[in-house]
User: What shape does this take?
Amino acid sequence: MKGGHNKKSVRVEFVMSEAEAELVKERMAELGITNLSAYLRKMAIDGYIIHLDMGDIQEMIRLLRICSNNLNQYTRRANETGNIYAADIDDIRTRLDSLWDGMDKLIRGFANIS
Assistant: This one.
């Protein structure tokens, strides 16, 4: 391997029907894959491709950022005024409980991947 790239030197060719080619294109589109060679190589070697919908994880990250920002604001207010408000604590507790519920759902979803 020169320059860290895997040199591919073996060419494999096969023929498929139009219907099979359409199915391959549909499967690739479902997974968001555009490189036919990479898709066929992965399927030939592993027999499957796992596509993770990262939308739920991105939403969890967004919610964590909101919680972190709120916690920073509450901490700043507590340092400035010397007071901690029960409503602020309840708000952050509710948000964190929601985050934990979402994380539990994600972890259970990952556990069901086979």
Q: What stands out?
A: The helical segments are 18-31, 36-46, 55-81, 86-111.
